[in-house]
TrEMBL record, chains A, B:
It comes from Micromonospora profundi. InterPro entries: ADH-like_C (IPR013149), ADH_N_2 (IPR041694), ER (IPR020843), GroES-like_sf (IPR011032), MDR_fam (IPR045010), NAD(P)-bd_dom_sf (IPR036291). Residues 18-330 form the Enoyl reductase (ER) domain. SUPFAM superfamilies: GroES-like (SSF50129), NAD(P)-binding Rossmann-fold domains (SSF51735). Keywords: Oxidoreductase. GO terms for molecular function: oxidoreductase activity, acting on the CH-CH group of donors, NAD or NADP as acceptor. This is NADP-dependent oxidoreductase. Gene3D superfamilies: Medium-chain alcohol dehydrogenases, catalytic domain, NAD(P)-binding Rossmann-like Domain. It holds the Pfam family ADH_N_2.
């Protein structure tokens, strides 16, 4: 067996993580026990929610352990198997990223067909990222045809799909915000009706210009100013699907909160936080829709791919700084 | 016709209203035109939402006009009628309170049977107040049997009904907060499992003691600290029905907002603002339930009654200061 390289959590960050938050560790690749497989990871995912897991606080998933490998979505090829249903050469999706070789029970892996789509797509448009966009927009926010949808971090992996799916499902108008002029250009190319760089002025004003008749749905990846602006812009019976609040993940002080929250009463707004885990019942419908759109060329997905396990910390830090277009992945 | 006395809005308050916000004006009672009735009001309601209508801002109901009578829920006896379906002597519910005599189109009044309940009850437990509690708890927050419910301003008109209805509908535990020791005592007499005075310490700590296993539903009448504490205490998939935010109605600066709002994601919380107007479809079920509970002696309702139109401003100011137990009414 070759040597495995993996990334450990070296220290818990206060505020922004740095390279010192991580440590590259070499280990042997263990031989699989009964029912286990060994996967040579081809791609691993870095996601904003991982920042929360670096803190030692109770949450919906346990915190990462110090001096142990991080984990997260990954896809790779089976190189050894002691499980009857999985063969060497199979491609599997699993949750032991941040390492070159993963050893896990076969029941914790899901076989995928690498001939149907590039394997990276199973970590982005066809995976949790895509389902997050689909479920948040259509189930949590219950978008209806003709409505106006606003999404923040719109050039990111989830946001860019939210905007496109909204159009494909009949939204009347789709508005996105992003952090650079290039991303704003990309959003327009993806079919967004309007897009703005949130650095160009108060979000509230940019949103009012982009959606003069207000919005019906806000898909929140950001929190903070964006959420406050959305609450002001929402029409009667508007809905907010709260997917993430990346603007505040590195705050050391309690973050500013929307000071116009009382508007939820008169406007009868619904704000709903969600995790994709609760929406697995939509998977079949999601795969059918998304595979169809991809086949017809109606849905684009961007990937920003960083090379090598040693650059995985840099990929994660770049994600937090918004350096990605679409899904941020590490090729191993 | 006798003289009518009514209360006008004399000035728009900055911060807390005062007696100078109001002006008592004497007018003649107009004679009714075709289709109109004249009502001698017996009771009028003062409600927290009226504070918002004193500001000159766009909202779900238009602001009160300066130098014109205020309005709001009232009940009284018809003393003149030019409408075929309404007779002198009928008791009607309508929206022209803040005056001794109201002249209105008969279609804007609803006849009620004064033999079924004291007429004041149509402005409290059997009226909008009761329906607000019922719809907010059972439809907006979708309380299920066995759940733990927390309600703020729990000794107020809506809150005291929320707590009792929760118990009657099978809540496992009901917790209320109020602003005096006497109110806390009253909540315990009404069957609340736990109650605390929010002046006695941080709401978050008092709530944790009162509901050590967390809460599933929060019925918010207050906003501010209470909402923040509730978000911290809510269990997975918890729901907040946002009915009012009285803590901040007189603020001149943007109010503090819950700084733990990001918890809505991991806990998959739903926060929903509502107005009773949207829930009229529940009225029949509501009346059946509430009338039954009243008949069986299972539901109590408190009323704080102030005498005379000249004391209506004091009644409203007292309401904002929390001087009422249950529904605050003015007897005319």
């Amino acid at each position: 067996m070759p040597t495995n390289r993996e990334i450990h959590l070296a220290s818990r960050p206060q505020g922004w993580p740095t390279e010192d938050t991580f440590r590259l560790v070499e280990t042997d690749v263990p031989t699989p026990g009964p029912g286990q497989i060994v996967v040579r990871n081809q791609y691993m995912s870095v996601d904003p929610y991982m920042r929360g897991r670096m803190n030692d606080v109770k949450s919906y998933v346990p915190p990462f352990a110090l001096d142990a490998p991080l984990d997260g979505g990954a896809i790779g090829e089976v190189v050894a198997s002691e499980a009857p249903d999985v063969a060497v050469g199979d491609t599997v999706l699993h949750n032991l990223g941040w390492r070159e070789y993963a050893v896990l029970g076969a029941t914790s892996a899901r076989k995928v067909d690498p001939s149907l789509a590039p394997v990276s797509a199973y970590l982005s448009v066809l995976g949790m990222t895509g389902l997050t966009a689909y479920a948040g927009l259509l189930e949590v926010a219950a978008m209806k045809p003709g409505e106006t949808v606003f999404v923040s971090a719109a050039a990111g992996s989830v946001g860019s799909l939210v905007g496109q799916i909204a159009k494909l499902k009949g939204a009347g108008r789709v508005v996105g915000s992003a952090g650079t002029a290039a991303k704003v250009q990309r959003l327009k190319a993806l079919g967004f009706d309007a897009a703005f760089d949130y650095h160009d002025g108060p979000v509230r004003e940019s949103l009012r210009e982009a959606a003069p008749d207000g919005i019906d749905v806000y898909f929140d990846n950001v929190g903070g100013d964006h959420l406050e602006a959305a609450i002001s812009a929402l029409n009667l019976h508007g809905r907010v699907a709260i997917c993430g609040m990346i603007a505040q993940y590195n705050d050391t002080e309690p973050p500013a909160a929307p000071r116009n929250l009382a508007m939820v009463i008169g406007k009868r707004l619904t704000l709903r936080g969600f995790l994709v885990n609760d929406h697995g019942h939509l998977r079949e419908e999601f795969v059918r829709d998304v595979a169809g759109w991809l086949r017809e060329g109606q849905l684009s997905y961007d990937e920003t791919i960083i090379e090598g396990i040693d650059n995985a910390p840099a990929a994660f830090l770049g994600l937090l700084r918004g350096e990605n277009l679409g899904k941020m992945l590490v090729r191993l």
